[in-house]
Amino acid sequence: MKLRDNIRKINESDGHKQAELIQQWKDEASANLRAMHEGIENKLEDTPMAGYRQYDKAAAYEKITGEHYEKSGISWKKWAAAAVFTGLIAMAGLFFVNNKPITHYAAVNGVEIEHLNDGTDVTLDTGSTLDYNGSRGVAVTGRAFFKVSKKADKTPFTVELNKGKVTVLGTRFSVSSYPGTTEVAVEEGRVKYEYGGREVILNAGDWMKLSDEDIVSSPILTGNHFSWTTQVLEFKNTPLDQALQDISRHYHQELVISKEIKTAGKCLLTSKFAGENLDQVMDELKLLFQIQYYKSGNRYVITSMKC
User: What is the CA radius of gyration of the chain?
Assistant: First the structure.
């Protein structure tokens, strides 16, 4: 919605509907802030506070309503409209640092590679999003792999996750940031993960996850840990239970082996998958190991197999 359309709808509404419209506008904050920034950039004065801009309530009110600002004569509706507008200006201090708006990236139809203007390359998994502050900070929802550029002044690069934050100087690593899932894996260099007043340093070959609010780390045990970035899975005499874990991570789907199956670790898989979807992979496993399974949402439950 355009700014004036929002204000008009708020002014024409009452009570609960008015609150709904304000919430809807807040939910669209990123787009509104970008549009607002373009319209008011030359109207705001800088202050010594980095990333923060002063605003004039009277000017904001007059810009919205086209009427002269009188403190004692503002109706509830006009006050609400001005409050939302000036509130968004205050929020803009969180998004605009050194006049650089947030850039939003989303991988909708497949894995995408983005090049940030600080020299960092980011690979986003399907369905993942990234917000970039134009400098050395991003926020991730979903899964992303970073090749972070090093800076001569050693300015750190930070990644905000659903829980916690990663700080690096220059390295190659991946993060998974989903509801209920927070993971970091380092391919090259080292990173620091912080959460809840705790921190852990991860070196090349290390992996960590947040498990019941505890930070658990271990070595990366598979060569396919970053396979989703290349869309290539490769196995050579790999125990099938380990292969299924790799396949599960690659496609971000849950593959479960029935407790009755005791032979999965004895079956060895040698194969390469390059671009196949998960159903195609499962069809090949059917041929190789006579796997039987059923699907329940995003969950694949394997009920039988033979080596």
Answer: 25
